[in-house]
Amino acid sequence: MTIRLAFAPVLADKQALRYFVSEEKSMPTIYMIRHGEAAAGWDADADPGLSEKGHAQAETVAREIENRVGRKLPILSSPLRRCRETAMPLSKSWNCEPVIETRVAEVPSPIEELEARGIWLRRLMTGKWADAALPENNGNGALDLLTWRQSVIDALTGLGGDTVIFSHFIAINVAAGAA
Predict the structure, then answer these.
(1) 55: which residues sit within 8 A by CB, 6+ positions away?
(2) Within a domain: 55
(3) Which helix (H) or strand (E) is 15 found in, with range?
(4) Tens-binned pLDDT, residue by residue, of the chain (179 aa)
(5) Is 17 within the bounds of a domain?
(6) What pTM did the predictor assign?
(7) What is the CATH number for 53?
C-alpha cells in the first residue's frame, strides 16, 4: 500500500493539520493534529494541560475540522492531557468521546527527572532514528524507541475509516516519515 502525505495549514502560528491519502484504492483519510500550546514544557511538567492560547487553538482547530470534513468522524487522542484538552471542543461539538489511543502518545522517555528528560528529548529530536538505539537514548536498553515508532505506524495503518487524531510532534513526524 502506498501512502502520500499531504499538509494543510490550520492555524496562523504554523500548527498544521496533517492527513494521509492513498494513491491506490480507497484508504481512510487521517486528520492528525498536534495538540495546542501546552501550559508548561516537557522539562517542567510531566503531563501539562493547555495554556490559554492552547485552549483558543483547540477551539480554532475544531471549527477548521468541522468546515473541512463536514461530517462526524471517530476521534482518537493521545492519553496525555494536552491532547485530550485539544480534542474537547471538537468532541463536544460532535457529541462524542475521544477514544484514547496510547500508540499515538508522545515518545516515551527512559528518564523520570523532568529537567534531564527535557535535555534528553531535545537531543533525541536533533538525531536520527538509528540514534534511538544508543544507550544514552534508550536508558541502556530499558526502552525500545524503534518499537514505539513502529507502534505509531501500526496505529495509523490499522484504521478502518476516516479519523481525527490528536497527537504530538514526534508521533506526527513518525507518520510523515513513514508515508
Answers:
(1) 36, 85
(2) yes
(3) none
(4) 334 344 443 443 333 334 444 455 578 899 999 999 999 988 889 999 999 999 999 999 999 999 999 999 999 999 999 999 999 999 999 999 999 999 999 999 998 898 898 899 889 889 898 888 888 888 888 889 999 999 999 999 999 999 999 999 999 999 998 87
(5) yes
(6) 0.84
(7) 3.40.50.1240
